Structures are given as structure tokens and as C-alpha cells.
Amino acid sequence: MNKRKESIAGLLFASPWLFGISAFLFYPLLMSLYLSFCDYSVLRPAVWIGTDNYRELFHDEVFWITVKNTLLYAVVSLPMSMILGIGLAMLLNSKVKGLTVYRTIFFIPSLVPVVSLAMLWLWLLNGEHGIINLGLGKIGINGPNWLSNPAWSKPALILMSLWGVGNAMLIYLASLQDVPVSLLEASELDGASSWQKTRNVTLPMISPVIQFNMVMGIIGSLQVFTEAFVMFPGGVPARSTYFYSMYLYDNAFNYSRMGYASAMGWILFIVIMILTGIALKLSNRHVHYGGV
Amino acid sequence: MKSKKKWLTILTHGVLISFSCLFIFPFLWLLDTAIKPIGETMKEPPVWIPSKFEFHNFWDAITYGSDKVGYIPFFVYAQNSLMLCTLVVVGRVISNSVVAYAFARLRWWGRDFVFALTLATMMVPFPVLMVPTFTIFRHLDWIGTYRPLWVPAWFGSAFSIFLLRQFFRTIPFELSEAARIDGAGEWLIFKSIILPLCKPALSVVALFAFMGTWNDFLGPLIYLLRQDTFTLAIGLEFYHSKAGGTQWNLLMAATAIVIMPVMIVFFFCQKQFIKGIAITGIK
């Protein structure tokens, strides 16, 4: 087939996406950049106000609270879920019997719809009647008021996020199963202990996947919304669960400050790009593309 | 050496079993609460085995408030969710397979650039698109309808395109060449050679589309206004705020009802799930 014809066919086949990516991604992205420099409340046309939104954000106390909350949540929950995910995957990869049963058990919680997840954990973590605190009481620990104590509301959300670690675990497990047995056997012959094998063979071999999960984790955890929105309306107690996306949503749809919300959106986008860039750069030294 | 290995196996199973208990327990407690009489939900020490199995809790949860004005049954929410899921799933499968064909099997000007761009868009956080997208749909007068929630699905999505492209590329190019020599057009090759060979990948895309839509909370929260148009996800939250946090047995029954379809789909499509998610990590 000649080149010209193939090009036309290619463009035709790609056309839905060429339209989709323009209409639902690039155009909104540029528009939100423009709106971030505007005073805009849906009902009235946008008015250009220069960098006022950004300057106001800088002095907005609530903005900084949500930044702090979100970073804190991400910094704690991401490493914990990565360690738990890799750990469980490694245990499953050690040729245990009943692999498929364990795998299913660990995976299923990550399927639970977020709203249902929130409802379920509202009940489990209930300060007075929740089974978790009743259980802690049994072993002599006075369980905290997870839902109404500002010091414990974030740990509650992190605990919930760990329950959904199964998705990432499956990805780790799949890559572990792709590590060539010959490599492990070779290192065994050379007298490597199981720790050395893990440290020098297995982890480097799955490092691209660890990096991928880390990047996706950063992007996801900085956008945490639904769980907190449902469980802690308005970020109660004492704004301890008021996350970035919640404040953005409130500005856009409750306070009708769409320009302000757009500025927040762009800051988030830029922060995600920077953090992803840093994460890639820092981890690239340790990532080994060997053929996984 | 041998006994050391045995101990290691026992230890591994011990750890795995303890974690399994932790992971399963919330589900058991959910079901346990859902079938309890209300009086036994808040007892201390907790009641493990209810004195009566109140299976009608599920029915009560669905029909909660049916004696009040403005009552919207769960059935309506479920119906809305299913309809929306169907529209999204069909749209995703059709549009993404067509687009992925362009990226995987055809050479055209700018292809690799657009593909790189497509992958990069996966980094764009939804909140940054939230306001302008809302404005666009407002101009179209689509707020309060389902259209903002399913129309975009018919124009492709980055992740599904990526996933299908990887699959489409594994099919020998000689097959296409042979068909071309026989005079087949691209559409025919796509429809009768590539698609039938890629059913597993298509089902993965369908699966993810279903899950994503069934679980979606923010989208319906922004675009749906009338209560009778709510999806189950929004309906459950609405139910929670209306019924309050007192009737835990009914709330858990309702929660279980929302989780159920997802679990059923999972148990029927376990293989596709595991495969599909495993692919996610391969770049």
C-alpha cells in the first residue's frame, strides 16, 4: 500500500482521539491557564485580573493548610503502601502453596468503590461502637477517636488506603514472576544469601515497575478527594482532612470562584510535574532496565 | 538446611494468613452488620453471631424512606448506574480500539509525537481540567444530563489506547500484509483480523471502563443535579447523609449492595483482571 493512503487511513483511525485529546484535554488545559488569571464565577464572563489569584493564594491560610495536609498524607501513605505492596508480592512469589487464594484476598479490597469504602470504614473506625476500637480495647489499648480527633483522622485515611494496596501488589507480583530464574540460580551458585539475592538481583530487576508505581502513586495521592469528601465533610475535624482537591472543589462549585480554583489546578499540575521529574531523576540511578 | 526451609515456609504462611485475616475482616464485619437487628449493632462486647438473621435489612435499605415525600428508590440509582456504565463501556471499547489501531498498525505523519503526547496526558490531574470542562459542558447546556459523563468516553482515553496498542502490536504484521495484497482495506483488516484476535485485551478495557464508571463519584457529583438522575455512588452518599449514621445495619446493607456488582464481575473475569492490571506496569 502506498504511503499516502496509509497516512490518510492512520489519520482517519486516529481522528476520534485527535478530537478527544484536543477538546477534552488541551483546550481545557489552556482555558484553565487563562481562567487562572481571571475573576470568573460562571454566571458572569471572565475578567482578566493578572496574577491576583496566585498572589491571593500565597496569602490564603486555608490554601496552605490543604497543601500541608495533602503533602503529609502523600508522604506517609505512599511509602507505606509501596513497602506493603512489594512485601506482600515477594511473599507470594516465594513459591507458596495457595498463591491464587492469597492473591485474590489481597486484591479484592482494592475493587471496593470509594464511596462504599468510605461508608464501611466510617463504621469500622467509629469511635464508640467501631469494631477496631472494641478490638483495641480487648488488648488493653484505648482506641482513639479516629473520626473526630484531628490527630487521628489522617492515620485513619492512611489505614484505609493501605487496605487498597492490592492493585499495586498485583503489578509488583507480575513483574516478580518475570524475573528470570536463571539469574537467581546463578547467584545462588555463587553463594548469595536470600537477602543478597533480593537486594542485588530481584529488586534491580523489578525497579522499573517500582518507579512506575511510585510515579502513579504521587499523582494519585496528591489528588486524594472522594474518601475524605465523604467521610469528613468540609475536612473536619479542625480541617485536619481538608485536602487540596477538596478546597479546589469548594472554590469552584460552592464559592463560585472558578478563576481561583483554576489557579489552584495549575499549581497542582506544576507541582505534580516537578515532583514526578524529581522522583524520576532520583530513582533513575537505581532503575535497571534489564528486560523486565 | 532442610528444617530451616520448613520453618521459613511456615513463617511465610503465618504472615500471609495473618494479613489475609486483616484484609478479609472488614468484609465479614460488613456482612455481619448488614444482617443484624439494629439493637445488636452497637453492643459491647460486639455480637459476632446475630441472634436473628435479618435478611430483610437489604430490602429495607433499598426501600428506605418509601413512606416519605420525594423518595427515590435504590432501583432508580442502580438503573442509572447501569445505563451510564453501558454507554461508557461501549464507547470506550469502540473508540479506543479504532484509535489504537492507528497507533499500532499504521504509519502516519506525527504518529509517534502524538503517542508520546498521549502518554504524557496521563500525568494531567483531573482537578486542573475540572473548571474548564464544566464550563464547556455548561455552554453546551449539558449540565444535569448524563452527556458530560459518557460522551467523552466515545473519543478515546489515553490509558486504554496505550493498553490496546501494546496488544495490537503483538499480532504478526505479515497477517495484515497478506490481507492487503488480497486487496483488503484497513477497516476490513481491523474488523476481521485484529479485533477477533484481541478479544482478551478488549475485555480488559471494557472491565476497567465498567469499574471506573461504577466507582466514579466526582463526575456525577459535579454534573448531576436532580436526585432521580443520581448514580449508585452518589445515591449511597445521599442515603448516608439522609439516614444519618445511626442505622448502621441498613447503611452496611446498602453499602454491600453497591459493592456486589463489582465483586460479581470480578469473580467472572478474574483472569482478565489479573492480566490487565499486570500489563499496567509494563512500559
Explain how this protein is built.
The complex is a heterodimer of chains A (292) and B (283). In chain A, strands 1-2 form a two-stranded antiparallel ribbon. Chain A has 292 residues and is mainly α. In chain A, helix 3 crosses helix 8. In chain A, 71% of the residues lie in helices and 1% in strands. Chain A has helices at residues 3-35, 52-59, 61-92, 99-107, 114-124, 131-138, 150-163, 166-177, 181-189, 194-221, 226-231, 244-254, 258-284; strands at 38-39, 47-48. Chain A has 13 helices and 2 strands; from the N terminus they run H-E-E-H-H-H-H-H-H-H-H-H-H-H-H. Chain A has one domain (53-284): MetI-like (MetI-like fold, Orthogonal Bundle). The longest helix of chain A has 33 residues, at 3-35. The model of chain A has no long low-confidence stretch (mean pLDDT 92). Chain B contains 14 helices and no strands. In chain B, 70% of the residues lie in helices and 0% in strands. Chain B has 283 residues and is mainly α. The two termini of chain B are 40 Å apart. Chain B is globular, with a radius of gyration of 24 Å. In chain B, 39% of the residues are buried. Chain B has a single domain (74-280), classed as Orthogonal Bundle (MetI-like fold), CATH 1.10.3720.10. The chains are: A mainly alpha (292), B mainly alpha (283).
